[in-house]
Structure formats: structure tokens, C-alpha cells
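Quick one:
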Amino acid sequence: MSSPVAPAAGPRGIRVELRDIFRDLWASRELTYQLTRRDITIRYRQAVMGFLWAVLMPILVVSSGFLVRLAMARYAGEPVHALSVAAIAVKALPWSFFVGAIGFATNSLSGNLNLVTKVYFPREVLTVSTVLAQTKDAGVGLVVVGAALPFLGVHYGLTVLWIPVLLLLTLLITCAAGLFLACANLFFRDVKYLVQVFLTFGIFFTPVFYEPSMLGAQGARVLMLNPLAPLLEGFRVAVVEGHNLLRPLTGMVKGAEMLIWSPWHLAYSAAWAIGGLVLSLLFFRRLAYLFAEYI
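Output:
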């Protein structure tokens, strides 16, 4: 396992550097597992509600979204369909996972003073373990939402096979953001406050309560620039609409035909997830030798 040293003055092959990073992470997989278990145990220790916390956030998001959709429907003189509630529920789960994981990941370095300063191991493990710990809550929520969707009129088909792909991309993009923010928060301690602000108001700039098509063609294109937006819409289109994500989907919006989904949306988020993770790992590793000084 390589020790933390300052980046070399000359150019170093990115492929070699990434190979070293992934080799260190693989060698530390047992440590990652133990830290993940620790985070889960601490999170639920002396918690009155126990695993009900896993479904509380999605329930709150769905309830808030339902009220927003109800108000919009009443204003437009239209009914609220059960599938609209199902769409919010499907998108609330990955959004809740992202919010919860980023909240813990941002403080993953600054909150582990003794480990960072006294023992050497790949520091990425601290952040990755906090994200993985959130998957337990997401798993409980997935079971609950999956059981509830048929009662909201959702019929499962082969398109649910897209769920693992979307979940993996959501995990990768969350790890990428978590690694970057954990590193930034170590050097600038007000980052955690900015993150909380963005997570609080980010739901209004992410299609959780609504579909991008409601903003019109131009508004939808702008909204889908948010890397999370295509993933959330992918869950809705694949699960609720039962549509194959490799095929475009169009629909009528206010009397005009509009592109609802394109395979390029999925490719865009995949590029952000994979490219963002690579860049975050390189950024994280090249600054790791400064962590003990700034913590």
C-alpha cells in the first residue's frame, strides 16, 4: 500500500495513478467494510425509531411532493393521478440517498481526526464507507417503495432491469461528489454549511416533485444539465412509464409534442458519474499528503 507523499513534480501517467488508487482501495476492502458497519451502528445506536429512519425521509419527500403537485393540479383544474404520486416516490428514494450520503460524506475527514493523523490507510476509505453506510437505508426504502408501487397503479415489466444500472450510477456520482466535498471541507470548513444550503434548496432544481417537461422544451433542457436529473427521470421512465431507456420517449405537453427522454440523457449522467469519480479520486489522492496538516 503506497504511503501519502506530495505529488511528483513531473507528469505522471493517470492510468498508473488510478491503478495505484484502486489497488489501495481493494487492499483496504476489509477496513471499508468495518468502517461501514461502524457508521451504521453509530447511526442507529440509541435511536428510538430504529430503521424507521430509513423510510422517514422518502415519506417526507413524497408527502411534500404530493402537496406541491396537488396545489399545481388545483390551480390548473386537473386531478392528481396515482401515477404522479408513484413517480415522486420512485424519485424520492435516490434523492434521499444522495442527500443523506453527501451530508455524512462531507464531514468524513474532519470528523475522524485520530484516524487521519495517526494511522496510514487510503483516506478515500473514510468517505466511501459513509456513502456505503447510506445504502442500508436506501435498501430498506427500496423494499417499502417497491411494495407500495403496485397499489399506485405501477405494473412491473422488464424495464425494471434498468434499476441496478441507475442505482450504480447514482452510487458512483454520490461517491464522486462526496470525495470532492470531503476534501474541500477539510481545507475550507465553511463548505459543510454551503453543502447544507444546496441540499436544502437543491430539491427545487432537481425533478423530484415534478417532471422536466412541465418547464417546457427549453426549461427541460436546462434542468437536465443537472447530472442527477437524468438518473431520477430514468427511474421514473423505466419503472412508472415502463419504457426502455435505450429508446427515445416523446409525449404531448400542452398540445405540443415534446421529447421526454433520450438515451443521451443516460449517457450524460454516466459520463458525469465515471468521469467525476476519476477526477475526484485523483484530486483527493494528490492532496492527501496535506490532510494531517490541515485537520
